[in-house]
Design brief:
It holds the Pfam family TonB_dep_Rec_b-barrel. This is TonB-dependent receptor. It is found in: Cell outer membrane. This protein is mainly beta and about 1000 residues long. The protein contains nine helices and 53 strands.
Length: about 1000
């Protein structure tokens, strides 16, 4: 029987189709996160094929494949999962924050954690969320190995010091370079007084997705001239394709000082000073206590003899504060356009009376895919911050100096409203609060746009244009009832406008050769221009205290304006090469030019190289069920520091007036040989992960050697100049860093994770051709830690007569120190007595998830540093001055045979109050930095409301501090010491940190 060919062909095709459908099926499923929220845009790949699909807005997907075929499901920020295809699949993706394929932001690109040959520390939004602090830096404290973050004092706007692997300069900037979404930030303190304002206070922490800190030279050298102090890369939140998401976070709480010092009450004050007077003039001299005497004068008509007056000035200065923070964000998009919009309001009432902050902020991030080749984006941020300021630590208008007042003086007059400034020992700070004002308004605009064009699949070009505008205006007024009474009031206004433009253009080339060889190239250029304008005017004499602007002044007493500008022009390149996914090589080079340096040394070259060996990919380990990652890495590189004046290399003249005639006078000496301060850094590290990544971490050892230190070198007075900026000397930082992350328990209901970091620091000055540099209580000396304390050594009290004693520490003939004691301060020599930088730092974070409960806490510790209390000569001076004293004075020497460390009280006479180690203390501490407890309502309770998540939480900051330090706070220091000042580790009426507890609510729609 004959069958026509076309019929036969039809039968064969039908048979093949039936066979195919018998083997393949259409499988459906849903992808969610751990909490059950759908994940739109997740990628699904049939392993070993070209079949791919994505989840829709509700997390659903369908795929044609064989039953049991392996599906690879992935999403950015989540752990990639492989499962077998089956009907009705329900896939939950876990957070990927601790996985090896986590993507890190690096300079001008990204790289997976597994392939990193650098040392980069990272915190994410999850690490920082719900920490009630006004700035994002404080939210990272204790979470980064080798990174010390300290707010100078407890003022809400207080400057923040971030030190990455120690201090690498003497007079140049010690702050890292901050970069947000590729745009280098203005980070200049523009305070109108010696008390700094944190330049980044205007950033909203809730807008930040992640922060990467480039610690070693291999990672930081791509930023060349400004990488010595580390680079902080801030990435803000972006939208994701899928359903529009609305997130609301609202919280409120209260604050108080972490610690209050103990001061004499009225009875103790009377006892101490009566005794001090008797020791000086004899018991029969009653100049303090007689009717109409000094004590009567202080008490302003109140009977101090019966305890009618006993003022606690500290309680007037340190008050209960409050904090409220409200954030609203909306994000979403489709396959072409994604967006993120947020608005926030923060109000912080400080723990120091009269100090507060209000911040309003907005952010809009937009990313649009124009075509398969072109993508564009725009990130914008606007903020307004208003700060009610108080005086610097070294001013009587600052509330905390009120502790110097005698408790015998009432704070108010008899009406209980009007501050008493008639009988107080010093100026009553309440006069300024009631009759003056000091406001700072900061308006900040950040814009960063980009366009990225894919020339060919392997090659793309990206151009970025950034703009940072920081406008700050400070207005100060002191009325006719303040310390400016003699001029019938005083006012000044200080306005500063800073602008920065940044242009980055670079090519990115990624190519895989024969599957085993991967090359990543970045080549480009960068240009930055920064300008600053300042106007200042002051006046005195006001017709009324209600007229508070300089415009109303009877006389303009001062006025000035200035303009300055500088720029950077840079070319950079980086090559990363991976062989067999286990041998890693990277090299980078940056060629930086700056207008700040002399013509002969304007450009600097900053190379870096690193290598890595992923041993766990070798045949003898890759099949191990125990080892997931074992990677050796090493790096070397050169970074720079350009944190000096804009015209430091030039000989300058400025205009002035002489006899009402215009004139020009010399202002600065020329130094055309001025060049970059450079730091060579070597880093050796080991990354590891065991037991299915349940144990992971890293171990590092680094050595940083800084040469050609930029130093404002003091000059002899006979030269007619005070200093000259020169390249002088060198110093070294070295230390170990250890990070350990563990998943202690992981079940369906309970997860417990821990993260421990430990870092050591050894800082030494290795070369200083000009010899020792001494400033106040600090010294820069070869072989010692920079800014070490240089003090006479206190030896206690002579039990026979109550004299303060000091160790002579003069040199004996054999070269040893004479440890005999003397009561004559001038006979004792100063010695190195400690340093202001910790030698050991640690942080421990634990996170526990149980059903719908979450609990986390972070402990932070520092050891090895000391603090010198410059105010000790007034606060603990054996009643030499009339200032109120600390309660340790009640343990003073009073009779022969007394064994104590507090000398005899002697009014008006020095007896141990000279600068010595008596006022130097170790600041070792362990602090419960933050603690958070939250509860997420079950979905069954909220699904009818159309809400994805409702979480209630309570968070605390600085709840506990364990220390033997007797001052206000082991982290609070004098706010009049800038980076260029050699004096470090000094406390002077410095406000403590705030202890804060808040209650909050998260709502996701």
């Amino acid at each position: 029987m004959r069958i026509k060919f076309k019929y036969f062909l039809s039968i064969v095709i039908v048979f093949i189709m039936q066979l195919t459908f018998a083997q393949e099926s259409r499988f459906s499923g849903k992808v969610t996160d751990r909490s059950g929220l759908p994940i739109p845009g997740a990628n699904i790949i049939v392993k070993g094929s070209n079949i791919t699909t994505q989840t829709d807005l509700d997390g659903n997907f369908t795929v044609n494949t064989k039953k049991g075929q392996i599906l690879i499901i992935s999403f950015v920020g989540m752990k990639t999962l492989e499962i077998a295809a089956s009907a009705g699949m329900s896939v939950k993706l876990e957070d990927n924050s601790n996985q090896l394929d986590t993507v890190f932001v690096v300079g001008y690109g990204t790289q997976s954690k597994k392939k990193l040959t650098d040392n980069i520390a990272r915190v994410t939004a999850k690490d920082m969320e719900n920490v009630p602090v006004a700035n994002f830096q404080n939210a990272m404290v204790g979470k980064l190995a080798g990174v010390q973050i300290t707010q100078i004092n407890g003022k809400v706007e207080g400057g923040v010091k971030m030190r990455v692997r120690g201090v690498s300069s003497i007079s140049s900037s010690q702050e890292p370079l901050y970069v947000i979404d590729g745009m280098p930030l203005i980070n200049d303190n523009e305070s109108g007084s010696s008390a700094p304002i944190n330049p980044l206070i205007s950033l909203n922490p809730n807008d930040i997705e992640s922060v990467e800190i480039l610690k070693d030279a291999s990672s930081a050298a791509i930023y060349g001239a400004r990488g010595t102090n580390g680079v902080v890369l801030i990435t803000t939140k972006q939208g994701k394709s899928g359903n529009t998401k609305i997130a609301i976070n609202t919280s409120a709480g209260w604050s108080e000082a972490t610690h209050k010092m103990k001061w004499l009450n009225a009875a103790q004050y009377i006892e101490l000073y009566t005794e001090a007077s008797a020791n000086r003039y004899g018991a029969n001299d009653l100049w303090l206590t007689e009717p109409g005497g000094v004590f009567d004068g202080y008490s302003n008509g109140k009977d101090w003899r019966t305890g009618q007056v006993d003022t606690d000035w500290q309680d007037l200065a340190l008050v209960k504060g409050s904090v409220q923070d409200h954030t609203f964000s909306i994000s979403g998009g489709d396959s072409k356009t994604v967006f993120f919009l947020s608005g926030a309001y923060n109000k912080t009432e400080g723990i120091v009376r009269g100090n507060s902050m209000d911040r309003y902020s907005y952010r809009g991030n937009l990313d649009h895919k124009v075509s398969d080749k072109l993508r564009v984006g725009l990130n914008t941020s606007l903020s307004k911050t208003k700060i009610i300021r108080i005086g610097s630590d070294n001013s009587f208008t600052t509330p905390l100096q009120a502790v110097a007042q005698t408790p015998l003086a009432p704070a108010y007059l008899d009406d209980g409203v009007t501050p008493n400034n008639q009988t107080t020992l010093y100026y009553n700070f309440l006069m300024q609060q009631y009759n003056g004002s000091w406001d700072a308004n900061i308006f900040r605009t950040l814009m960063n746009s980009y366009a990225e064009y894919k020339i060919i699949p392997e090659l793309s070009f990206r151009t970025e244009l950034g703009y940072d505008n920081n406008n700050q205006t400070e207005e100060y007024f002191a009325g006719s009832l303040t310390e400016s009474a003699s001029t019938n009031g005083y006012a000044d206004a200080n306005a500063i406008q800073s602008d920065k433009y940044s242009i980055n253009n670079y090519f990115n080339y990624n190519k895989t050769f024969k599957e085993d060889y991967k090359l990543d190239l970045v080549v480009g250029m960068s240009f930055e221009e920064s300008s600053r304008k300042r106007q200042y005017v002051a006046g005195t004499g006001f017709a009324s205290d209600d007229l508070q602007t300089v415009e109303s002044a009877a006389e303009i007493t001062a006025g000035s304006s200035s303009r300055t500008k500088y720029n950077f022009l840079s070319y950079f390149g980086r090559a990363t090469f991976s062989i067999l996914d286990k041998y890693l090589i990277k090299g980078s080079l940056r060629y930086d030019g700056s207008s700040r340096f002399g013509a002969a040394n304007r450009y600097g070259v900053f190379p870096a190289a690193s290598v890595g060996w992923i041993m766990s990919q070798e045949d003898f380990l890759k099949d191990s069920n125990f080892i997931n990652l074992l990677k050796l890495r090493g790096s070397f590189g050169v970074t720079g520091n350009a944190g000096i004046g804009n015209f430091a290399s030039l000989g300058l003249f400025n205009g002035s007036s002489y006899n009402k005639q215009s004139a020009i006078n010399p202002y600065q000496l020329v130094n055309q040989d001025l060049k970059w301060e450079k730091t060579n850094q070597v880093d050796a590290g080991l990354d590891f992960a065991f037991l299915n990544n349940r144990i992971s971490g890293e171990i590092d050892y680094y050595v940083k050697k800084t040469n050609d230190l930029l130093l404002n070198e003091p000059l002899p007075g006979t030269s007619g100049w005070s200093s000259l900026t020169r390249n002088v000397g060198s110093l070294t930082n070295k230390g170990f860093e250890f990070v350990l992350n563990t998943t202690n328990i992981k079940t369906d209901k309970l997860t417990w994770k821990s993260s421990l970091n430990i870092a050591t620091l050894d800082n030494k000055v290795t070369n200083l051709p000009g010899g020792d540099i001494v400033s106040g209580q600090n010294i820069v000396r070869v072989g010692e830690t920079i800014s070490s304390f240089y003090l006479v050594e206190y030896a206690g009290v002579d039990p026979a007569n109550g004299d303060a004693l000091f160790y002579k520490n003069t040199l004996n003939n054999d070269g040893s120190l004479d440890k005999s004691t003397t009561k004559n301060y001038s006979d004792a020599q100063r010695v190195i007595s400690g340093n202001p930088y910790p030698t050991l730092m640690t942080g421990l974070t634990n996170t526990v998830l149980f059903n719908n409960f979450d609990f986390s806490f972070t402990f932070q510790g520092e050891w090895g540093a000391s603090m010198y209390n410059e105010a000790g000569k007034f606060q603990s001076s054996n009643a030499r001055y009339k200032d109120n004293q600390t309660t340790d004075q009640m343990n003073r020497w009073q009779k022969p045979g007394d064994i104590t460390n507090v000398p005899q009280a002697r009014w008006g006479r020095s007896n141990g109050d000279q600068a010595s180690t008596r006022y130097l203390e170790k600041t070792d501490f362990v602090r419960l930095r933050n603690l958070s407890f939250g509860y997420t309502l079950p979905k069954t309770m909220i699904q009818k409301l159309g809400v994805d998540r409702i979480r209630l939480y309570m968070t605390g900051v600085n709840l506990l501090t364990f220390t033997n330090y007797k001052g206000y706070d082991p982290e609070s220091s004098y706010d009049n010491n800038g980076d260029s000042n050699i004096q470090k580790g000094i406390a002077f009426y410095s406000a403590p940190s705030a202890k804060t507890i808040i209650i909050g609510l998260n709502i996701d729609l």
